[in-house]
Each structure stands twice: as C-alpha cells, then as structure tokens.
Amino acid sequence: MQVLSVASEMFPFIKTGGLADVTGALPHALASHGIFVRSMLPCYPALKSRLSAKSSIAHRYNDLFGGPASIIEAQIEGHHLLLLDAPHLFERAGGAYGDDGGGDWADNWARFAAFARAAADVAAGEIKGWKPDVVHAHDWQAAMTLAYMRYDERPAAPSVMTVHNLAFQGRFPAGIFPQLKLPPEAMAIDGVEYFGGVGYLKAGLQAASVITSVSPTYVQEIRTPEFGMGLDGLLNGRENDLFGILNGIDTSDWDPETDRHLAATYSARTLQRRAANRRVLLDRFQLDDDGSPLLCVISRLTWQKGMDILAAEIARIVGLGAQLAVLGSGDSALEGAFIAAASRHHGRVGVVTGYDEALAHLLQGGADAILIPSRFEPCGLTQLYGLRYGCIPMVSRTGGLADTIIDANHAALSAGVATGFQFNPGSGDAIVEAVHRLIAVHRNRSAWTSLQRQAMKTDVSWNASASEYAQLFRSLVSSGE
User: Fold this and answer.
1) CA–CA gap between residue 297 and residue 318 (Å, rounded)
2) Domain Glycosyl transferase family, which positions (predicted)?
3) Burial category of 160 from C-beta neighbours within 10 Å (exposed 0-12, middle 13-18, buried 19 and up)
4) How many CB atoms within 10 Å of residue 58?
5) Rounded to an integer, what distance in angstroms lies between the CA atom of residue 396 and that of residue 311?
6) Where are the beta strands (DSSP E) in 118-167?
7) Which residue(s) pair with 80 in the sheet?
8) Which residues make Cβ contacts (< 8 Å) with residue 273, sequence separation at least 6?
9) How confident is the model over 178-233, as pLDDT tens digits?
C-alpha cells in the first residue's frame, strides 16, 4: 500500500514540536506492516541544503501562488521525500511559520495553500509512475490538501486528517478566498468557510474520509465545548468517522542503553548509572548536589502547558525539598518568571531557555521526574520519553497524559503497576500535592526503583499504534471511501 503523508515538519529535518517526531517515526513503523510512505514537506533552506545529485524534479509549476515552483523527489536518512521547492514562499530566514522575532509570516495562508495545492496534485497522480492509495494530512498546515482534493475533478484517494492539537486551526480572513483558486461553492459552511472567514483545519476535517487524533481521551474531549475550540459541532456530526490512536515514539532514537547524548547509558537493571547524568545536569543548571528529588520541565512555556500555574507554585515546590530544572521557551513573561525564580532560589531552580535536543535527552536520562502540568494535552510525547528513561512522569489528568500514565496511588503501588503521578489539571494545589506524594515515594529507595523499572516496562513504541493506522488505511481502501 502506498501512502502520501503531508506535513509541515518532520524530524530530523525540521522540528518545532511533537508533530515532527510523529511524522518522522510513523513511516518507519508502518513499513513493517507492508505500507510504503512518501512524506511531502516544504523545501525549507535546511532541507534544500541536504539535497544530493540523486534528487530529481518530479513536477514543475510556472506560477504557484506568485512564483515558479517544483516538486523534488529525494531520499534522505532513509526517508522517501517529496519536497515543494517554492523559493518565494519557503526560502527565507527564520522558522517554519515565522520570522526570527517570533511573529508569524503574514503570507502563511499562501504558503500552506500552495503546499496543499501541490500535495493534492500528487494525490491526483501528477508524479509520474506513482499515485497514493491513501493521503494522510497532519494539522492545519496540510489540511487544505483534502479540500483541494474534494473540489478537484480528478479522482483522488481516500484521506485521513490527523489533529495533533485542535488549538492551532489556521484561520484567515474571507478576503483570501478568491486567491485560493477554489470553486465558489467551496466558500460554504460545509466547505472552507469558518465563522465568516476561511478555516484550513476546519476544511480538512470537513473533507476527510476519516479523522484521527492522537489519544482516545482527547478524541472525547474535543467533542465538548470546553475542548472543541469551536469545532465540537462538526466533530460530533462526524463521530462515526472519528478515531483516537495514541502516538508512539522512535525507540531507537530514544533509548537509554544507546543514547549518545547521555554522559552514561543505562538500562532498567543498571539504574545506578543514571547518577552520572544527574551530575552533569546539576552542573549545567547550577543546582546543589544534596540528593534532593530533581524534577525537570521540557516544554513550550505557554498557557496551554500550564506553565503559569507551575511558575506560581515554585516556592512551595522548593519548600517541600525538590529541585527544578527547566528547559523551554515561549511567552516572554513566563520565561521571565522562571528566570526570576532561578535567581530567588539559587541552587534549587535552574533554567535554560530555548530548545536543545541533546539537553532534552540528558534531562530524561538524569532527572528523577518530568513535570507536565498541561491544561489540555492531545497526546504528549515527553511523558513517553520519561517512561522509556525511568524519569517518572508527573502529569495532568487530561488527554493522552491520562491515557498513558498509571497513577502511583496506594493500590497501584501495592500491585506494582504504577508508572507515574497524575493530578487534576489547572490547579496549583494539585501540582504541589503530587510533588508531596512523589517525595514520599522517593525517600523509599526500593519503592522508587520499582516504580522506575515498572515505568520502563511500558511499551511506548509505535508497534500497536502503527498497526491501528495500517488497519484504518486498509479499511478505507477496501471500502472505496
């Protein structure tokens, strides 16, 4: 089976968040199920610099949303890629979605409409000798692919729209519609129209054969007004086409026994070797070496991630006897709040702003626990990395966090099945109480080691989830959706 995966980012080529980890790992996982994936991405400068002489132009455009463009076929690091090379849209300094100052590109509507238009052409067979059986679009940046397919006269494959985070929707003014080159009837409530404007994610959800999101609990949450972000009505209307499939992680890249980013590799049998990683962390974050439980945060510093709640509780957490190492960036006010806390609690709180992939691995390999206080979380990947590395997850009871962590209550600890700590989202008191419970278990070295080993037994690979995707793809093809 041939699948076209359409996404705006993909590890190890371009990454701003967990979307890239998923789109980078899933193709390899699907290969074992007899599914061949070609991944379509914008040809950002970082990708263009990695093209080799073996790369070839598969399709050309004289004018694609304001300039010439082409689709390039390439193989890089074992991935089969189709890259939209549109220099007027993607060859610029800055990030995937915005400039170096953190502002979104004003023409994102055109950039990702062009990307979607090209992906729809691939879906219709414009690449000589290859046509996908299924098209798999990820998040709003790829969602218009399915709208273009819907209004195209050429026959197209069945499609899957995966929502990684419903909060990011790609909403633009109605004035862009004439430039999208869609038929007039597309500007309707059952098309791309959304609250008087154009909604890219909404259009994809409307046009997809089926919709998936990244955990069973999140799929139920987004059907409610609280989490539906204005799309709960549409999603409830498509409940029979809605599926929750948990994300996995690349267990070859995230493996404490072979991880090149660690000062010392280890296994569940050699947990004592984690101490070497801890020492490096204490030095990097300028923390006291006194045996206190070391909690880490690896996150965007935003409201969704509950970072404002955590920042307000740092003094109480430190007062309980824990240390905190924070790696992240985001809202400037929240960055400032954590930096100020590190200054007030020298030796107890350390902060590194920005994102550092190697340091993220080291934190998982040396900290005692990872704290994830999200208000909502579609799936989450950092808690899966934590399980894999024996860095005990402390998570809000929401979305995929609730689906993947077994709370260390008395019964679960006694039965030996606990893998972390859950607490109610949106509450500082709940976070502090969870830290209190963690410290109590941490004092009992035998109980703590058992908890770590149980966490590390959890299957966080793509094995089960890739099987679910494979079954879904095959059902779409066999039913002729």
Assistant:
1) 14
2) 288-445
3) buried
4) 18
5) 15
6) 134-138, 159-163
7) 75
8) 264, 265, 266
9) 999 999 999 999 999 999 999 999 999 999 999 999 999 999 999 999 999 999 99
Dihedrals phi, psi of 350, to nearest 5 degrees: -130, 145
Give Cβ neighbours of residue 468 (< 8 Å, ≥ 6 apart): 243, 245
Q: Among residues 357, 360, 359, 337, which one has the least CA distance to residue 349?
A: 337
- The backbone torsions φ and ψ at residue 155, rounded to the nearest 5 degrees and listed phi first, read -65, 140
Q: Which amino acid is at 124?
A: A
**How much is the pLDDT for 100?**
84
Binding residues for ADP-alpha-D-glucose, as ranges, are 15
In 3-state terms, what secondary structure has residue 468?
A: helix
Query: Which residues fall within 8 angstroms of residue 448, CB to CB, at 6 or more apart?
Result: 441, 442
Strand ranges across the sheet with 193-194: 171-172, 197-199, 193-194
The two structure tokens encoding residue 286: 């300028």
> Can you list the residues of the chain whose pLDDT is less than 50?
none
Q: Give the residue among 48, 55, 57 at the shortest CA–CA distance from 75.
A: 55
What fold does the segment set 271-457 form as a domain?
A: Rossmann fold (3.40.50)
Of residues 17, 373, 331, the one with CA closest to residue 168? 17
Helical segments of 171-320, H only: 200-207, 216-221, 232-237, 274-284, 307-312, 314-319
What class has domain 2-248+463-479?
alpha beta
Cβ atoms of 22 and 214 within 8 Å: the answer is: yes
**Cα(40)–Cα(119) distance, rounded to whole angstroms?**
7
Q: Strands 197-199 and 193-194, how do they pair? A: antiparallel
The CB-based long-range contact list for 19-23 (8 Å cut-off, 24+ gap) reads 19/138, 19/139, 19/164, 21/247, 21/249, 21/250, 21/381, 22/138, 22/164, 22/214, 22/247, 22/381, 23/138
Q: For residue range 320-369, list pLDDT tens digits in order.
A: 999 999 999 999 999 999 999 999 999 999 999 998 999 999 999 999 99
- Side-chain half-sphere exposure of 125, counting CA atoms within 13 A: 8
Tell me which amino acid residue 341 is: A
pTM score: 0.93
At position 218, the amino acid (one-letter code) is Y
Furthest C-alpha separation in the chain: 68
Residue with tokens 């400068």: 45
Structure-block tokens of residue 370? 């990872």
Location of each CATH 3.40.50.2000 domain in the chain: 2-248+463-479, 271-457
Known binding residues are 15
